[in-house]
Amino acid sequence: MKQSKILIPTKKEAPSDAEALSHVMMERAGYIYQISSGVWSYLPLAYRVIRKVKGIIREEMEKAGAFQMETPSMLPADLWQQTGRYEAYGDTLFKFKDRNDREYILGPTDEEAMTEILRDSIKSYKKLPLVVYQITDKFRDEPRPRYGILRGKEFSMLDGYSFSADQKGLDEAYDLQAQAYRNIFDRAGLNYKVILADSGTIGGDNSQEFSAPAKVGEDVIVYTDGGYAANIEKATSKFTGVQQTAALAELAKKPTPGAHTVDEACETLGVDQGQMLKSMLFMAKMGEDDYQPVMVLMRGNDEVNETKVTNAIDCEELELASEEDTQKYLGAHPGSLGPVGVGEEVKILADNYVKVLVNMACGANDDGFHYVNANIDRDFRVDEFGDFRNVQEGELAPDGYPIKFTNGIEIGHIFKLGTGYSEKLGAKVLDENGRQVNMIMGCYGIGVTRLLSAVAEQNADENGLVWPDSIAPFDVHVIPVNAKKDDQMAMANDLEGQLTAAGYEVLVDDRKERAGVKFADADLIGIPLRVTIGKKAADGIVEVKIRKTGETIEVKQEELVNTVGILLKQLANPTDKQE
């Protein structure tokens, strides 16, 4: 294929708004074009990569017993209202009305639509288990699109769904999908971790996330050398608190003028952070127009894990209380809040590490004042203890190894949904005893375009993209140094024919550009192998450069096809050694 005939608008300069290496290089290399904030066009090179990723997905999904279908992007709002997710997703949904004033959304995911289809199509357990999937565009009104195609308003996604009549069927489908996902990411050349994850707005009690470590990853991966891995929202560590045994001292109120942070209050009072209570007030949405004030108590040096709090009280949303609500329920501003004297209308949660403390310092719900020697039960109540904190690096994970942190890009997520959707939408089948039972569901998703960003982020260098051959737009980039020389172009055309006949995809740079421009663009584009036809063309010798390592070798024309096969095999299996 001739490069002069393909739209590849390479750029010398990085886009001014680009923060991520993958964004910089994919835009500079002419893979993507931004139509508006968070909305991207995928140009020919990117389209070829996406097509290969989708091909890998289709192969592995069919091996796992899943078959492809497609639901519409335009979904009736009332379907989502039945499950409660119309409100839960809030402003993230793209909402509109047709000419008959009927409300619709652009689908961000398709649990409801798939459940409705199976509800109306399957009536007996004999037709289950069944796994279906689609690869379609999804839409989410991201408040802050960023990192190029990593977080956009429109994106391509694989979403799969399993339906079974019993738990065994769900477990089997889930395990098959988990292995299929490993195969997909392995074949795409990704470094990734499988981690414990929170199910979020999708729902369900059990989920795993596939996360690709990367500098710009928006998720924090907690992991150990022993194999433990979880995202920060789900991660736990071994409890090492020791019950304090000091005699209970008298509660006293102390002035702390200008002390608005834990550090400032500790310094003013002369107490250690470990004895200071950090008190945070949240508003928990329990239902439509039903909000519950919730105070969370932590040791001063700990951070509240809002996901753990949300799951503990089973609320739809959790957000920090406004200044108005803080004044209403506590009568003070943040920085002076505490549990002493708080009314029953406020639910009080405390982290497990608070339970072992005595004679604590805390805000007095009076601006500029704190208590010292506050104690549980005597001076304030706690309605529920639990693990409500973010783990910290160096703590021991459940497997006994020290915790480490890294950033990660979520590339896939699998969920055991259970019966949440089928129960709300009436998706039932007759079981083997003739009884009506709810279908038991699983949900499985891969961000296809996000996966491109993850691969690029992990493999790009300062010169451009470096694609694994399995998803590269082409296998070989043939570059005649001077396209005006007939012998070089004749050899380029000959090599293209030989390599294409051998099953390789070839891009020939036939442009009448300077050699330096061609080489710079080749590095930007990131095709695994570059074949340069230069001064030794008359002797039938070309130079082959491996994009990933920068190594170059000279090869005779008649040996090129065999050499390309060997090099690509080595790149796909780096541990393989040529004898």
UniProtKB/TrEMBL annotation:
Q: What is its EC number?
A: 6.1.1.15
Sorted alphabetically, the keyword list is: Aminoacyl-tRNA synthetase, ATP-binding, Cytoplasm, Ligase, Nucleotide-binding, Protein biosynthesis
Pinpoint the Aminoacyl-transfer RNA synthetases class-II family profile domain residues.
Answer: 47-468
CDD domains named in the record: ProRS-INS, ProRS_anticodon_short, ProRS_core_prok
Kindly report, in one word, the top-level EC class recorded for this enzyme.
ligase
**Which Gene Ontology molecular function entries are recorded, alphabetically?**
proline-tRNA ligase activity
> Where are the bilayer-spanning segments?
none
Catalytic activity reads: tRNA(Pro) + L-proline + ATP = L-prolyl-tRNA(Pro) + AMP + diphosphate
* Cellular localization per UniProt: Cytoplasm
Family annotation (InterPro entries) = aa-tRNA-synt_IIb, aa-tRNA-synth_II, aa-tRNA-synth_II/BPL/LPL, Anticodon-bd, Anticodon-bd_dom_sf, Pro-tRNA-ligase_IIa, Pro-tRNA-synth_IIa_bac-type, Pro-tRNA-Synthase_IIa_type1
Instruction: Give the quaternary structure.
Output: Homodimer.
Membership in a protein family: Belongs to the class-II aminoacyl-tRNA synthetase family. ProS type 1 subfamily.
Function statement? Catalyzes the attachment of proline to tRNA(Pro) in a two-step reaction: proline is first activated by ATP to form Pro-AMP and then transferred to the acceptor end of tRNA(Pro). As ProRS can inadvertently accommodate and process non-cognate amino acids such as alanine and cysteine, to avoid such errors it has two additional distinct editing activities against alanine. One activity is designated as 'pretransfer' editing and involves the tRNA(Pro)-independent hydrolysis of activated Ala-AMP.
Supply the domain comment: Consists of three domains: the N-terminal catalytic domain, the editing domain and the C-terminal anticodon-binding domain.
Any idea what this protein is called?
Proline--tRNA ligase
The species this protein belongs to is Limosilactobacillus panis
The coding gene here is proS
